[in-house]
Amino acid sequence: MKTTVALFVALTPFCLFAADDPPHPFVGVIERLDPAFDRLVAPGTQIEKLAEGFRWSEGPTWYDGGVVFSDVLANTAYRWKAGATEKSTIGAVSGAEVFLRPSGLMKATPGFRETGSNGLTRDAQGRLLLAQHGERQIARWENGTFSTIADRYEGKRFNSPNDLAVRKSGEIYFTDPPYGLTKVADSPLRELPYAGVYRVATDGVVTLLTKELNFPNGIGFSPDEQTLYVAVSDGKAPRVMAYAVKENGTLGAGRVFFDALPRRKPGVKGGCDGLKVDREGNVWATGPGGVLVISPAGKLLGVINTNEPNGNCCWGDDGSTLYITANYFLVRVKTLTKGAGW
After folding, report:
1. The pTM is what?
2. What span, in angstroms and rounded, lies between the C-alpha atoms of 76 and 91?
3. What are the backbone angles phi and psi of residue 135, rounded to the nearest 5°?
4. Which end of the chain is more exposed for a tag (fewer CB within 10 A), N or C?
């Protein structure tokens, strides 16, 4: 297993993110589309801004009593912690502190447009796991070092692992689109001609689960772990797929769980990116117009509309606070449900 000591210095990305518009004040609203939504988010609930000044916030996870999240373009992972960071200021960033820098690419190398970590989660032992665009691997952070969990399939480097989810058994499932690479799908650094969804078994063996999705992105399990959800960030066909998980951990045939294309309209920001699932099986998926709250039957119940493109979300505190990485911002919403596993 490869181990890398983190160097806490800033690296300059080779390609800047083309933001939708310059930094601006945060304005968000909660949209209620079905009466069932009131059981999940109480009427009158507001979206609360916690921190701002990021270039593209992503991949939050609840870790060590706070929210750790990526700024993919800044090659940095930040932490927000109640009572500790609300008044902190680092350059243009306010309300969060640097947790890891670099969080992805360890040594400046040409060919990357997004150098930092993206999706974050915890393993079965509570250790921090990272999908590292720049290092093109799934890594574990422990005792001041990164350890490689998986960086190749059949001897070929991954594209740029994007998001990951861990089963109770300890198996890690992750997506591997080419977003981290300059020229994306046309990057000369690509060694795999497809964007796969993979599983890392507890013995380290990597299995390709599907290569049929052009841009697999967010990933998460139903509470019983019998269904795997995968968001597809295809601008022409944004959707969330659902796969039956077989007894051996591989996947059955996929089906479209939610088609987000009808929500793509002029002025509506965002696409299908990260997702999480609550204890009742509702899917909270970033998509056009905000975080889409979708019932287990695939019905859209409500939208947490941040008026921003959103990277991902996670539950924290006692499991009933949803934290959202919303472009330049980190925001939160109190819910009446809890995340799966809380």
Report:
1. 0.94
2. 13
3. -90, -5
4. N
Tokens matching residue 78: 């930040």
Helix, strand or coil, per DSSP, at residue 261? helix
Number of DSSP helices (H) and strands (E) in the chain, helices first: 0, 30
Residue 90: both structure tokens together: 């680092």
Which domain, by its residues, includes 129? Answer: 27-334
Please tell me the distance from the alpha carbon of residue 138 to that of residue 121, in angstroms, as a whole number.
11
Q: Give the chain's mean pLDDT.
A: 93
Question: How large is the average pLDDT for residues 247-275?
Answer: 97
List C-alpha distances in Å: 114 to 16, 148, 189, 220, 340: 8, 19, 14, 23, 30
Q: How many independent structural domains does the chain possess? A: 1
Confidence tier at 85 by pLDDT (50, 70, 90)? confident
Q: What is the CATH number of the domain that holds 109?
A: 2.120.10.30
**From CA 229, how far away is CA 214, in angstroms rounded?**
15
